[in-house]
Structures are given as C-alpha cells and as structure tokens.
Amino acid sequence: MRKLILTLSAVFVLILHAAAQDRTITGKVLNDKGGPVEGASVTSNDGKYGTQTDKFGTYSLKIPASVKALSFSLVNFENESRTIGKNTVINVSMKLLDSKLQEVVVVGYGVQQKKAFTGSASKVDAKEFSQLVTPSIDKQLQGRAAGVDVTNAGGLVNTPAKIRIRGYNAFTVGGADPLIVVDGVPIITGNLAVATNSNALGDINPEDIETIDVLKDGSATAIYGSRGNQGIILITTKKGNKGRTNINLSSTFGFSSIVKQFPVLDATQFVTIANEKFTNAAQAGPARLDPAGTNTNWQDNVYVNSAFVQSTTLSFSGGTNKSTYYFSMNYADNQGVVRSNHNRDYRIRANIEQEANKYLKFGNNLTLSRQENKDQNNGSNALSGATVAALRDLPNVAIMNPATATGYNITGNALGIGANLRTIDDNYVNIAFVLDNNKFYADDYRILDVAYGEITPLKGLKIRSQFSVDYFGDNSFVGYDPRHGDGFSGNGLAQNSYQSILRTNIQNYFNYNKTYRKHSIFLTGGHELQQQTTRVYSATGQNISDLFFIKESLISLTPSTQSVTGNYTKSALESVFGRINYDFDNKYFIQASIRRDGQSSLATDRRYGNFPGVSIGWRPSREKFWKTKFFNDLKLKASYAVTGNNLGGFLYLSTYGSRPYGNVGGIAVSVVGNPALQWEQTKKYDVGFDLSFWKSRVNVSVDWFKNDLDHLILGVPTPMSAGIPGNVINENVGTAENRGIELSLNMDVVKKDNFNWNVNFNYTNITNKIKSLYTLNGLPQTEITNPLSSPYNIIRVGQPIFALYGYQYAGVNAANGNPCYYKADGSLVQRNVANGTYNYLLNLNDPNIGVGTTLTSADKVILGSVNPTWFGAFTNRFDYKQFGMEVMFRFSGGNKIMNVTRQEVLLNQKFANNGTEILDRWTKPGDITSTPRLYYANDAIINQNGEATSRFVEKGDFLRLQNVVLDYRFPQSALAHFHDYIKSIRVYVQAQNVFVWTQYKGGDPENYSNLGVDATVTPAIRTISAGFNVGF
Amino acid sequence: MKSLKHITAILLIAFTTLLMAGCKKSLELAPFNAFADQTAFSTPERCLLALNGVYDAAQSGDYDPLNGTAHSVRGYPFGAASIEQGDMRGEDMVNIATFYQITYQATYSPVSPNNVNMWINLYLLINKANLSIDGFKLAQSTGIITGPWEAQYEAECRFLRAMAHHELLIHFARPYLDGNGSQLGVPYHDYAIGSSAALVRVRSQPRDLVSVCYDKILADLDYAEANLGATVPSTLPGNIPPPTGANTFRATKAAAIALKMRVKLHKGDWAGVIAEGNKLIPAAFPAPFPVLTANYWTGIVSPIGGWKLEALPNGPFTNNQSTESVFSIKNDALDNTGVNAALAQMYGPNVPGRGLASIAPGIYNNPLWRCDDTRRSLLLIAGASNANTPSFFTKKYTDYVNQSDYAPMIRYAEVILMQAEAEARNAATISQRAIDLLNLVRNRAIPSPATNQYTAASFTDKNDLIAKILYERRIEFLAEGKRWGDIHRLALDPVFSPGGIPAKAVNGYSNAGGTYVCGNASPAYAQLPIAYGDFRFLWPIPQDERVSNPIVAQNPGY
C-alpha cells in the first residue's frame, strides 16, 4: 500500500514537471537530535514541484532553474525554507515544535491554541486507553480527567457508563449526561435498543480516536449553549498525515471474569436457615437436604469464568500533497460474564479530506457500524432476572431433572421442588433453563457521516459548511420459551421491534484569525439547526403454536394473540452563535461568546434563550517582572457563563394520548403541561491557574468552580388526589449549586535517554447542594420526598440532590432478636419481627415489650450523598529502553450506597436462598449481632423493604487498581529484516480492574444507580488480555 | 484564477442562503402521538374516545412500584386490583406469596405500593372523569355534540366518579355507621384539575365528612340514573351500534340503580335499598313462581335493561357478557391488567396460573356452604399453590393466557341479595320476600331446590335469616373482592359485626390450621384478628399526599 502510494505520487510529480527539468537537488533532512526525518515534504517555492524524504531522510528533486527556494514541512515540525543559489545539495535540520506550547484545544466550532485558552478543559490522549479491552470509550474515560466522574455499574458488556462532568446539573427533567461531539457532530448517545442493553457510543471504535477534549467550565461550553450544560466531550478521530502512509494492525485478546461472586449459603446452611425461618414463625420447616447430596452453586451456572474478548483493527492512513485519508476496519467480540450476555461489533471508518485549491477544501468523515447485542432479563426483582435468580435459587435443588419433560428441574412454573416440602417462594425460576432458552437480541446499525466544505476567501478567514447524518437502526428480538419462565403465562412470546433514530445537523460557521503586531483575534460565528425523528414499532405474538417459532423472529400466523405498538416523535433545536477571542502579546486574553438557542419543548413565546459567556486570562510569566526561570509558565484565568438545558418533549403542552378501553379506542390526558415554562439557567463560575516549572517537566492545573443552577425545572409534586398523571407539573422553581476544586498534575519525574518516569495525578472535590424548591400556599418548601418515585431518596434544601433518606438502625435487641431503630427524639424502638408492631425499649438488651409506638417518616434522617464528593486517579508510566509499564489507580468516595441487594435479596425471609450474612442472625437471648431473628415471610418487617435504613446504607469509598499494562516495543534493529514492510511492533499484556479496596459489602462499589441504589447489579468484570500492534 | 473567484462567490452566496434558511418553521413542531388538550374534544368522535379513556382509567391505571423502577399496568383501580385487595383484606382467601402480603397481614404504611396506588388511581379516574365532563360541556356549548349526548356521557363519567369515591371510602375512611357519617371521609372532587392554577382549590379542600361524601355519591348516581339509557346508545354521528356487549362494560341505568343500592346498604338505609331494588326486581314474580321448575330463576327479569340470573352459577364467568353482568370492567387480549395482576393468573392454581391466592379452609369447610353446592364443582378447582401446597382455587377467571376475563363489578345476583338483606332487615319478623330472593340465588346452586331450599322454618328468627343472607354473599361472591366491603360496613353492626379484620389463615400456607374438609368445623386461624378500633382497620393516606397537600388529614396511628 505504502509503495503504491509512493509510486503514484512519484508518477504524479513526474507528469507535472516532465517538460522543464533543469537540475537535481539532493539532500538530507534531520531532526535536532541528528536522526533522519521521514516523510517531510520538500516543495519548490512556487508549489509546482515536490517530493518527500525517505526513511533515511534523503530526498532528490529535479527542478527548473526558475525555482529559487525549497521549503520543507512536516506535521509537528517547524517549517523550514532554503534558497537554492548554486547549491545542489541542501541539508536541513528541522526543529520539533514545542508540543506543550503548540498543543491545541478543540473548542467547538474551531480549534484553539492551548496557551491562549482561558476556559477549563481536559485533554485525553486516546493512546492512553485505545488498546484496553472495552467495547466503548466511555468506560475507559474513568480517571482520565479531573472533574469527570465515570461510573460503570455492573459487568454487562453492552450498558453505557454514567458520565458526570462537574456534578449533577439537572433535577428531574433533562438528562445529566454530557453532550458528545464527534468531529464537530453532536451524536446520539444512550442505551438505545428495545430488547437489550445497547450502548450507542460503542459504534465509535476506540482505536479511531485521536484525542478527546472534555470541556468543563461555562466559557468553554457556552458556544454550545444549552446543550453544554452537562459538559461536553469532544472526540476527534484520526486523520492521515500528508506524505506518510501508515498501515496498522492491532489486535487484543483476553478473558474476562467476575471479580467476585456473592457469598451465598450452601445446601446444608440453607436447610438450617430456611427451616429456622419457619420454626420461628410456628410453622413446620419445609427444607430438606437432597439425599443425593445436591449442592448447586447457581452463580456458577449464570456467570462465565473466563469470557473470551477480542478486538482487531486494521487501519490505513496517509495522504498526498492535497489530500489525506484514514480508513479502518474493526471487529470486536466481547463475551459477557453473564453467559447469555454478548456484544459483537463490526466498525468501519473512512475519513477523507481534499484540498481542491488554495481556497477550497472539502472532506467527509464516515462511520459505519453494526453491533450485535445479546442479553437476558436483568430485572432486579424480576422472577427471571439472571442475577436475582442466581442468588435466590435453592442450593439443595439440582439444575437438571431427567424426570421432567424439559430435562430441567422445574415444578409448576417455578424452580423444581427437589427434596423440599414446598417450592421456592414467589415462583423464582430455574435460571439455567431461562438463560438457555429465552432470547434477547438486538442487531443495531449506525451510520454517522459528516460532509463538509471549507473555503478560505481571505487569509485567516475560514468559512465552513457541514452537514451530518446520524442514523441508528435497531432490530430487536425477544423470544420467551413457553415451557418455563417469562413465557409460561402467555404460552410463549415472540417480539420483533424496529426502531430508527435519525438526527440531521447543519452547521454553517466561520473562523477568522488575525494577528496584527502583538494583537491577535479569533472570531467565530454561525448557525446550527438540528432535527431528530424517532420511529419505533414492534409486533408481539403470544400463545405461539410451537416453540420452534420463537427462535430468531416472530413468524406470521404462529401466535394466536397478536399486538402491535408504534410511536413517532420529532424534535428540533436551532441556534445562532458568535465568539470573539482576543489576546495581547500572548499575555492578556479575553474571550466572549453568545449563543441563542430555540427548542421545541417550550411554548412559542418562551422558545428562545440567550446564553452568554466570558473569560479572561493573564500570563504573568510573560511579564518583565517575572524573574524566576524555574517557574517557566503561569497562566491565571477566570470565566463566567450562563447555560440552559436541553429539555426534549413538549413540556409546555397538555396532551391527550391513546388510552384504549380493552379493544375499544380511547384517549385520556397523559400529561398536564405548563405553558409558562422557560429555559433553565446555570451560571457557571471558574477561577484557576496553569503552572509549568522545572523546564516544563511539571505541569499543574488548579480550578475552582461553581455552577449556580437557577430556574431549574422541577416536577413539582401535585397532590395525588388532584389526579394529575404522574402526580407532577413541571415548573421553573429550583435552585441548586455544584462547587468544587479540580487539581491535575503531570510530572516527568525522570527524563533520561533510556529511562522515563511520568506521573499523572488528578483529583476532584465536588459538593452539590439544593438551595431552594417550590412554594406551597406561599410557604417555601424544603423537601420533596420520594423523588422519581424512589422511596430511598429525598430532595431537601441544604442537602445534595437525591440524598439517601431513611431510618437510623440501632441494632438487634439481644434479649429477643427484634431489629431496633432510633426515633427522631432519640428514643429506642423495636419492631416485632412477628407482627410488625413497634414498641419502645430501654436499651438493646431489654426483654420487655414496652409501650406501643410507631416509626414514621418524621423519624427519617439523611443517610448520605448518592454522588461521590471526591474522586481521581494516579497513573505512573515507566519507560525503560524498549519496555514500558503503566499502572493506574483510581479512587472515589464520599458517597453512600443503599444496598437493596442485601436488604431484599440476600437477607430475604422467604423460602429462597440467602447470603452468608444471615448466618449471623440472632438465635437466643444474649446474642450480640446486627442481624435480627429470622421469621418466615416477614422480610418487609425485618428489613424495612422499600425504605432506606442505616443498616443497608454503606460507604461507597474505594481505591481501585484500575489498569496495569506492560509493553515491549521491538527495536528498529530487530526489524531490520523487515525493513521495507514492518516499521514497528509493540506487544503488551494488561490487566484491567485488577483489585479494589473497599468496605462496601455489595458486588462492587460502583454498582449503583443515579439514585445511589444497588439493586441486584451484575458483578464487576476483571479482564486479563494481551495484544500486539504492528505498523507497516 | 477568475473561475476560482466565481466558485468562492457562489459558495459565499450558498453559505449566506443556508444561514437565512434557518427559518423558524423548524421549531414549530407538535406531537404526533397525542392530541394537544384543546383539540381532544373537537369532534363527536373524539368526545367518545375521551369517554372510553375514562373507562380505561377505571380498568388499567398506572401502577407505580414506588421503588424507582418502571411503572406498569396492574389493574388499578377496578380492572383487577379492587377485587384482589378486597379479597386479601378479608379472611375467605389466603395470600400465598409476596404480592398481597402487606395487605393480607395489614402491615401497610403510607408508602406501601398497594394502598398508595389505589389512592392515586382512583383519583386519576376521578379527575379524568371531571376533565371529560368539562370537555363534553365545552363540546356542547360549541355545537359539536347535542345536549342529550352531553348528558349521556356526563352520566357515565359521574357513575364512575361515584364508584371511585365509594371505593376510597371503604379503604381510607370509617364506615357510615360510625357516628352516622360524622367521621372524616375523603375529599370529594366534582371539579376538574387541568393546570397548576386549579390546584389551589384542591389544596383548600380538607377531607369531607363521610356523610357529605355519601350525599355527593348519591347525587351523582341520581344524575346517572336519570340520564343513562337502559342500554348503551348508538354512536354519534354515524349512528353506529355500540360494540357487542357494551351494556355489560359501560354504565347503564340499571348499573346506576344497583350501585345506589350498594351505597345505601353501606349507609344502613334499608328502605332506600328496597326502593332502588324495586326498580330492578319485579314486585311479583311471574308464574310459575314459586312452583320450582328448572331454571325458574332465569325467568325473573329486571324491568330495566332485562337483566336476569344465568341458569348456572358459573354462567356469569363462562361468558363475560352474560345476562347477569350488570356492570363489569372490560379486559381483553390486547389490553388487560397484565401477568402481574390478571385475575386468572393471581387466583388460578400454580399451573397454568400462578397460585398466589387460594380459597381459605374456613369458608370451604363451613357447614353453611353445602357440600353438594354446584359452586364447589363449577367454580372451584384443586391445584397446587405458589408454594406447591395442595389447595383450592377459584375457577371464576380462566383465561390464563390472554388474561381477558372481565372484572365483575355488579352482578344481578348482587342486586337480588342486596334486596334480600334489606327486606330481611326492614321487616319486623322473618321476611318471606327476603327468603324468596335468597332462594333465587341459592337454589340455582343446590340440588333438588324443592326439598333443599330455605323456607321460613329454616330460620330461628329474623337475625338468623340476615346472617344466612350475609353468608350467602360470601359464598356467591367468593373471589369477587366484595368481602372487604362487607367487613367494612358491618364492622359497627350491632348484631353481625366481624369485630374488625377477622382472624386469617397464616400467610403463605393456604391449608395451615386445618385441611380442606367440607362440613368440618372452621380451622383455628393463626393470624390474629385486628379490632375495629385499631388504626390498621383503615389504610393510611399516602405520605406524598400529605406532603404536597397537608390539608388532607392522616388517619390516626400512621
């Protein structure tokens, strides 16, 4: 390939000047260390003749006598030019650009030099993680940038990670997810497929990414207006370099396993505990050990121990004088740790850019992707939920039973009875049958294409038009076997769903750069229109004539009950924007921007909002008074901006949706809107500095920030008796703030020829506080209980959003085994495990049942914040000769997790298996324990199911050894044999999520939802892998 | 070079045009999947759709599991839930698994989903009825529908509104007999709430007294009776006949009268019940009555609507649209209460249902229920419970796969037994009319009615007759959710009070405390009774109601 291109360009050059060759200039291009520079362009000053240096840095160019000078250029090097005179040999030494000074920041509708940038942004070099085993980049952003909190709940391979940039900047309406922009295109993100988890970001091959810039403060995001409220992640994909052809093959393969199983009872322990539950409730114990000695570990059946994962990418990149290209193909296969969970990706990228002439450039970036996702019922209390059933299924019951029709051990529609006298409670299923026979499959297609043209009518002025299409097509299938599990009651189910999301985005804008003496300005202005339509329909058949017909698709006329659903929505966002940057002498900086956004979610008269931003910067290190050489660069900066929030839907409108009465068509009010709604407003403040010292070997950035959230749209609770659907009407009433400090440190501790040691550290401290809520009857309200219908949380003034809220657990009464709580006045109450009544007691060893009382919502207290208040990462990179090693630690904490898995599953009081914690239960007077007496069926009484209590609210603090990577780069000498076709080889082994230090008792301290709840989440994954990277 | 300038110029023009093309039209969107509220009543067809939407609110409201997970449909309030909750609050059925455990064991709190969702969905139904009434009035005032149509639709909405308020009263308020309606009832909402401004009125309305609620319920039902036809009318404007069997799943004049009977029974207004019942039951039973010919009970036909008993006790259940189904809530294969609420799934045995609620040994064994009663053979089925324990289950709901069993609300059998009770109570001595009415229902289920039926000699006194009528209700309406209504209204009855929530079989074991032996003495129940005076006799007002609307007082003890 490389040869072909070289040949083609040589032919091209030959044709160009076949007529008038006069003399031949030869020479060598070296770098400032004396090494050869390959691929540098050597061109005549009239631009008509040119060639490139070879791998020894030599060139040879025939030119006519009219050519007076040659210029030499290469990306990342300073341009050089030489007059020819009488010379026939011209050797040149090219200087590498100071990368720190020249570093650019992608800022939205343009690129800016980092030194002049006064906002707050973090750059993530994709090399840091592109070879880690991960189906999508979101999961690998963990710990890479200050202020960016990424949590990856659960070990499923196709769920998106949760990304929070500088905290949670929305209340109950509008997403808290950042905007993700790929090559200037705001793309569709989220968990999109109908039938399975499916991460839209998985359509971007991590290996295609050149850089990721995370815009955090108001001034940096203001140019994106309302969409920038939650922060912005700008992804730039790879481009070819002029004059160099690179072919790259990289492949990684490895194995994933769950980090740990939940500790559950074995058969003997189960029989003891189960019978004790019944005996304590004055019933006969039904659990019996199987004479065959059955001791089933259901988790062994559900979780795969070493799931194979692999990813292979082949890329071609390069360019000629006028064009660059980057093509890649990727195949990735990620077997999940739940054995029916699977993600397979086929991804193609093609980036091309062509200069038509001095004035016009055009190009196209294309991604084609297909994802196949397989999944299972993951419901946290679904009877066929993989994890919940693995924990509840009885250990003294065998998986298979040859005596049944299916061969699986099934009684009725529940797990088989085995030697027990009754079946498992609540119809929990034989999960082995369900995972073997039910299907959740999504075949998803993505086209992400941006075409653009850029004209440069004047020097410094660039006008760009770009049109992009982001199409997501989902073909989902669900098949339920009629014999057992979810398909039993409907006698089988087959469902095909089709969903398409189409987003078009048109941007027209200009950049103007002008430097006059010490004054520089950079102007940006333009217009953007984004439209999105979503279509979805699904066909469901139940009562299937034969289970043969549920294999891959719904088949016509096989179900006797058929139903269809469908929907169509459309939304639009339109904006104009402008930005001005000015700097004087690279010393004083100011930036101002404004954007006007309109969104279809608001009433006509309130549809538009204006979002200004301003920032200033000063580099005292450029002042004359700056004497110290040790501190070589210091920049101080401050910014302020106002952003809105993109809402979606038609929040202002009251609507009547379809509500049929049986098969008789009907409509009914579905939403009560609020025409007075206006834009939310977030005022973002940021003050910080960037400092370099010790010859730029140490770089420190510190930012203090505050986001003041105002006019927050809050689903204000309406009286349930008002009969408003959803019991809320949205109003602009809330105020809140996020404030914190971010610190990043990058240090070349050792920088020698053979040995480099780099340390990277980032730390964020962030607090969120609700400042005010709505008023009721003229009185300001200080709390909203059960936000988003979650009984574990509260929105309360003075507290972080969604704070955990519940009862204070006091422990177990050693005299009788009852769980005890503190009332608001500090008095102790015990809850009778037998009947749920509350009575006072004097102390935790009081045999008397005191006066009757209650435990009410007035006795609830705040139990903790659901979002981490501090987090960060610490990375060490060592390079010794050809060897490299990277070790990354990540830490996070300050949050609490409501462990519903323990409360409802592991400590259940039903005829079902338990976690080993239940072995600590109270059994006789005098026992000191925190696990109450057992009592069959009284889970809700003993564990306060559906409420948070301090017994189940645990610290979420952790330190994680996130990644360890060892690599070896073959020396050039070793590649001498392959001189012409192999340029580089790198091999590596790596381990991800190696170990976590935490007190959290659940599956993983990151297994929590937006509401800080861990409800039977799949355990976390550890992956060990190896791979290679060969450059041709 | 010249051509380059041309290209540049053209591109510049194109660019500017594109800028201008950012026309405001692109933001002028409206939903494609729902009507804006101003247009929901703009044609006669849409008015009918809105009326059906009110019935839908009665059938399948939005169930909020209150743990932050997805909402679903679970037959709240009347599609299944009122029956299931009504049975699980009583002692004639046993809860096996977790589904109704909180209701069964009376451990509900202001945040437990079953009672909270009943409150939410009853008021959602009430508000949808009120919003639609406003919509129909608007449509009438603008000439879209005529006055009689407005009255017909409004009457159906007010029927549902009355039924919803009454369901609220029996769960959240003390019975009428407690101080003659002087206890706190629930806020009676007879106005629409369609915007945040309208909430002011809700927030200034405390709980109405029980007596006020009963007055308003009866006023709504009087309006419904006056304006409903004996059958459901054809559809405007095309005069299209209503769907088959619409008389059974939309309100008719007879349904309004029957519901009034029930409400007056709760008030203890025996004369009132009789007056209403006389509209639906012929004063003199036609010949050959009382000569007992086969199926003679099918010859007693309501003068309004032509309702009559089916020949067999399972008739109303083998046919959702039976001659006896005065009012039911419609479910069908396409729109039902789902596998987590469907009556067949919940009440049927382990296979093919889920075996979550079985028949209690107490009623099965009771000697008042004859062993040869065909309601045992036709309407009970032996099977395994959810815990794989051998038990008996109801066979009233049998569409396990498609879950299309209607939820019976008012049967003609109830009309007759309500009238029997009122006649028995109203008479000074043993009422022959009451015996005749009781026999109409009972005789179709027992062999050789001529010899086995009740006669005046069967009863020691008037109270014995009333007691047997009350027990007949438990047998006839077993698994139809009516048990709680009776416990509630009888709690302060000087003679027939169950005392509060009766003792029950232990949760989870349907035959605990005794096995199923017909005619055996009642088993000793392990789940102790809860006295009428205990706070748990009532459901708590939901916590979220109290927070967002503190004027609604909590029931004491919660």
Question: Which secondary structure elements does this structure contain, and how are they paired or packed?
Answer:
The complex is a heterodimer of chains A (1032) and B (558).
Chain A: H1 2-17, E1 23-31, E2 41-44, E3 50-52, E4 58-63, E5 69-73, E6 80-83, E7 92-94, H2 99-102, E8 104-106, E9 111-113, E10 121-125, E11 148-151, E12 162-165, E13 179-182, E14 185-186, E15 209-215, H3 218-221, E16 232-237, E17 246-258, H4 267-280, H5 298-302, E18 307-319, E19 323-335, E20 342-355, E21 360-375, H6 386-392, E22 410-411, E23 414-415, H7 431-437, E24 439-455, E25 461-480, E26 493-516, E27 519-544, E28 559-584, E29 588-599, E30 608-618, E31 631-643, E32 655-658, E33 667-671, E34 681-693, E35 698-717, E36 728-751, E37 755-772, E38 775-776, E39 779-780, E40 783-785, E41 793-796, E42 803-812, E43 819-822, E44 828-831, E45 838-840, E46 852-853, E47 861-864, E48 870-880, E49 883-893, E50 896-899, H8 900-906, H9 939-943, E51 948-949, E52 953-955, E53 958-969, E54 984-998, E55 1013-1014, E56 1021-1031
Parallel strand pairs in A: 1-7, 13-16, 42-51, 50-55
Antiparallel strand pairs in A: 1-4, 2-3, 2-5, 5-6, 8-9, 10-15, 11-12, 13-14, 15-16, 17-18, 17-56, 18-19, 19-20, 20-21, 21-24, 22-23, 24-25, 25-26, 26-27, 27-28, 28-29, 29-30, 30-31, 31-34, 32-33, 34-35, 35-36, 36-37, 37-48, 38-39, 40-41, 41-42, 42-43, 42-47, 43-44, 44-45, 45-46, 48-49, 49-53, 50-52, ...
Chain B: H1 2-20, E1 34-36, H2 44-59, E2 62-63, E3 72-73, H3 81-88, E4 93-95, H4 101-105, H5 113-141, H6 147-172, H7 199-203, H8 210-227, H9 246-249, H10 253-267, H11 270-280, H12 315-318, E5 325-329, H13 343-347, E6 357-359, H14 361-365, H15 374-379, E7 380-384, E8 390-394, E9 407-411, H16 412-426, H17 432-443, H18 449-452, H19 462-476, H20 483-490, E10 500-501, E11 530-531, H21 543-548
Antiparallel strand pairs in B: 2-3, 4-6, 5-9, 7-8, 10-11
Helix pairs in contact in B: 2-5, 2-6, 5-6, 6-8, 8-10, 10-11, 10-16, 11-16, 16-17, 16-19, 17-19
